[in-house]
Amino acid sequence: MNKKLFLTAAAIPVALIVPTVASAAETVTVTGQNIVNETLTVHQLPNNAIVNAYQWYYLEKVASEDGSKTSTNKPIAGATSASLKVPVEAAGKTIFVEATTTDGKKYQSEPRTINQLDLAITTPTLEGFSTSDFVAPGETVKVAGVTVTDKAGAKLTSGQITYSYQWFYQLGEGENSFTIIEGASGSTYTIPKDAIEKGIKDIIVKVKAQVGTSFVESPRSEVISISKEPTDTLANDIKNLLVNDNKYNVSDIKSFEEKIKALDSKYQALSEPAKGNVSNYAVLKRALADVDLINKLNEKVDKVGGISDKDLPAYIKEIEAAYDKFDLLQRSLDVNDALYTSIKNLLNEPNDLEEIKEVRRLNLAIVNLLSYSNGISQYVPSDKDSLQGVVNTIEADIAKLSQNYRGAVQNLTILNEAKADIKKVEQFIKSFDKLSSNNTPNKQVTVAKSIRSTYEKLTYKQLKLVPDKYGQLLTAAESAEESQIATLNNDIDSYIGDDIYPINPSASSWQSHVNNVARMVKEYKSLTKASAAQIEGYDSLVTLQKDLKTAEKVIKDMDAYQKLSGVTGVTESKLNSSYTNTLKAYNKLTSLQQSLVYNAQEFLLNTPKVSVDGKVPADKAAAEALKADIAKFADVTKFTFNQLEKAVDTAAQSYKKLSSGARKYVTNNYLLTAAQKDITGVKSFYKKIQTAKEETDAAKQAKKIESVQKAYAKLPANQQHLAKEQYEALLKNQIIDENAPNIKQLNDELATIVSNDQYLVSIDKINTLSKQYSSLSSSDKKLITNYDILKAAIADVKKAESFMKTYEKSFNSNPSTVIKAFEKLTSKQVSLIPSDIQKWISEKQQGQQQTNEQALTLIESINSLLVNGEYIAGLEDKVKDIRTKYDALSAQDKKIVKNYSKLTQAESDLKKVADVHALYKVDGDEAAQKAWQSAYGKLSKKLELLYKNMYPQDTK
Hints:
- This protein is of the alpha+beta class.
- Helix content is 52%, strand content 12%.
- The protein is elongated and about 190 Å long.
């Protein structure tokens, strides 16, 4: 047995059964100081030991039943690593570490005792109060500086120290005699508001600190005295800022400002609870604000010299208004009324007689811009430039007036309308920039139409400002196509006809005719719609252009036949086929188309020769006789329809009777075939004629006849000849529609309803013409070439009728509305208004434009209520007199009194002063006197002076 280990064990008996441990030579070595918060570390292990676990233990003495003490090992919770930071709980205790190897062997370190804690604490310091000498009721005192240390050297952390506090106050007169303050056991202590009243005047605090099981108590803190002295002094200084509720204790604004800023600095240095003890801080706060207002207004007055003349009146008015808002207390800062006097010197009420005289002159000048004749007004200056010059002069003179007197200038509506009319006329004249003599006639007419539209929207007054040359330019542009229209009508007339075209074309002139027709069609298409409506026969011209193309094909076919007939060796069948086909094409042409075929006669005379071979038939003579009869069908103009029908029937029967051999000798049988087709075509056409004849309704028959006319125009020439008799009979016997519109008459009437921008007919007549146009068929409407005149007239009638409704509704109650509506009417629209109504409106206009001397006199009287910002003596009677005169004015005249607000302000100020006077009681109690002083103190300087003037006995 290892004696050393035995002896050690004997010296430290244990109650636990522990595993066998290694010999002492194989113990664990630990390094580190035996101090709380220091770290102990396993430094060395026995040889050949592989340790995989550690446990630190307390070695404690435990009393046994027999009274003896035995040792026991208590594991330190969580201490299972090779190092251990000595916990606070270990102070004064013995500890060791046990290491366990992988094979279960255990090794222990030598036990070591941790030093006991020997705590020390500093005297607590306090913070949280306003001054170094006193703490005020309501403030919170806080323990700030307490330090706890271990004399043995342990480095304690704040988390290991637990503090407790107790506050005390001095009791009685005994020196350093303090008693506990119940409930005051925190790190802070809020001084009760009534602490002084409760005898709590000097306080201390003691702090106790605990670290583990060790305790230490601090010395008492320095004595802190509780006092209201600093805030009481500040409150008293603030109180002394006032003489009374309506007057500051001030002799010089600058020194007063310095004083209140110093007081505010003291106040701001206080803690929030201490500030609460200064109950009258609102007085200081207002004093600061009032001084700032006075200083800013003084600065504004000082800057007057740098303000422009234009802005100066408004600037001075702002200054005056700002001073008027000051109450009596604020005005007490205006020492010796220095600021008030400066402001008074700036004021200059508009009571200059010269300005009133100028207003009257300008009123008359504006009225004289207009003259009236036959119920129509126009400008006296004869043109735009002259009117502009007069308007500019008037406006410049108005600008020279003071602000108040500018509002007294009357009839500004006339001036504003003149400027608007000038602008309208300038825009109208500007539209002529688009018009040039270099433009095509079509372009000139198109631009002129746009200008005319603008022109017709001008009022009579505006029209009179337009120089005559522009009217002439417009008329010339509108008629730019007239010569073109006349020439084109003549050209078309020389080319078209009823039965034949009169141009008598030839091979040499053919292309020139084609070109001329194409030119005329192109010119027509280049015309404006209104000008195109004046072209006569354009439809026939278009038909001619088509007929030229149709005829040209037949002409070429005839030329080809003639050329073929002169070629040697051409077979009779080929020549005969060419002739027959060309003749058929020719016979299909209308008479107008045939008149264009200049080589027809030569072609018809050059019939092809036909040879007949073979045996001569017995009925050859009959065939030749039939051929002679058929040859007459080449010219159907020699037949009536009935004659041709009979002859064709006879010839057809004769042809059937011929033998096949004899029929060969009837070489012109194609004429018989063509005649038969003509008979069939005419019969079909006759059915259309018959349908039209049988119609008894005139309007319906007219439409059917129109259809017959179109069909007739398309018939080939031979058929037109055969049907002509019955066709003309139909036209001659057409039922006359008594209710059918007279297109020409309507066009003529429309052309005469307006002249020189004036309607020559009434609204009823225009409405009648509108109904007539509306009743027309769509095709007839296209024939009304003067529809644009009617369209404009209908629009003008609507405007005129709308105005008449306004007139009937408002003329008596609100004539100005009617006058404004009348001024917007164009010259043509005005001509639709009955002359007596025009006259009444003109008289009312002139009546409203008369200068009102009574209104101007009232303006002067109202302005005289104030002189340099102060009300005149006898204000009450003067205001009553002005009120009576103002109420007697008409509503229109009252609008002229632009300074009416000054009258109402004077009335309001009189009432305010009277209301304050009503509070004054000669023998009143203190409350009544204070109520009057409060109300009186709120009066502005102007009202204070008025009060003293009206009730001098109240302020003695």
